[in-house]
Amino acid sequence: MFIGKLILFIAIGIIACSSCNKDKIRDTAIAGDRAAYNAVATLVNTSNVKVTTIAGKLDDPGNAQDGNGSNARFWNPTKMVYDSRNNLLYVADGTVIRSIDGQNNVKTYVPLGAIGSSYNEILDMDVAPGTAGGTLYIITKENDLWKIVPNGTSGKATNIVNRIYGGNAVGALNSGDHFDLPNGLATGANGEIYFFNEAWNTMHRITLSGAKTGTVSTFAGKPLTVRGGTGTSYPYKNGLGDAATFGSRVSDLSADTVGNIYVADLDNELVRKVTPAGKVTALFQYTNKIGSDLDGPVSSATSNNVTQVSARKDGKMIFFTTYGNANNGLSALRVVRPGNDVTTLVGYG
Question: What phi-psi label fits residue 199: left (phi over 0), alpha (psi between -120 and 50 degrees) or beta?
Fold first, then answer.
């Protein structure tokens, strides 16, 4: 399958389990349909996938050290976004944001303490509307929403929502507690902000009317009656708005420029698509948690735990990562072409 020439970045980290340490793909970010970088992964076709380290050194995390290529160190890189306005890759590294340019120079963009507490870990981020590169939205562990704007060579953080306590409130922005384990953030085609509250299994949409004003509405997913439910979620179901259900662990969101949102539905082992109208569908087969990465037509392809998702701008390719299969616990990088097929690009080596 020829998939064109594009750049895909991969963040790789180490996770601990009771008896092992395994490599895990932490996030992906698409740079676009051109070879502008010596990238982590340059995809030409499925028989020629090249993976190259551009910054940092595996198994040598250091302590958030700036520098070029292998001289740089990352502390806990979990989320990334590529900004085509200035051709920089932004990496959420714990509680700071780092930038990587086309020469693999790593610089601190938003320093420690700029988004409040030094323990306020960044959970997700996306490019925010505007003409200036480096304009970002971020969501944090302390249920905050921030906007980052460039200020010289650094980023200036402005708080939009700071509620501290978790909740699933809708209505006027800042009128209640809107965020509760918000794993997933994506900017829509018209500047809307989408996020997923894992504690309630719901996706929400923020429509801003001012710097800190706007409305929050439930966009998709049937909310649990009690925070966290009883340890189980509703049965799997596609549908419109709250007629659809999500698993109890959604780990990532991504958007295309058409207005669709893509969901890494970890527990249901699927990539889900949510249209601008809020209609939820699956991009390949639901297997009731069989846990196997099977390539092929979308009518028969299946997946293990879907951990991250990254959509190409036109929505014709959706890259996603999985963790674990029937034989081992390693990560895989896969791509689904909606309505066509699913292919594993990297993994299980």
Answer: alpha
Neighbours of 44 (CB within 10 A): 14
pTM of the complete model:
0.88
Cα gap 44→7, rounded to integer Å: 9
> Tokens standing for 244?
């659809």
Check whether residue 121 and residue 172 sit in a common domain. Answer: no
Q: What is the DSSP letter of 222?
A: P
Beta-sheet pairing, 41-45 with 21-32 = unpaired
Q: Total domain count for the chain?
A: 2
Q: Residue 181 is part of a domain; what is its CATH number?
A: 2.120.10.30
**30 domain residue, yes or no:** no
Expressed as residue numbers, the domain containing 189 is 164-348
User: How far apart (Å, rounded) are the C-alpha atoms in residues 268 and 120?
Assistant: 29
Decide: 310 and 253 in contact? Cβ < 8 Å: no
Going from the C-alpha of 84 to that of each of 33, 81, 133, 298, the distances in angstroms are 11, 10, 7, 30
Cα–Cα distance, 326 to 306 (Å, whole number): 14
Q: What is the token pair recorded at 102?
A: 């086309």
| CA gap 300, 104 in Å, rounded | 40
Residue pLDDT, tens place only, 132-189 = 999 999 999 889 999 999 999 899 999 999 877 889 999 999 999 999 989 899 999 8
86 vs 66: CA distance, rounded Å = 19
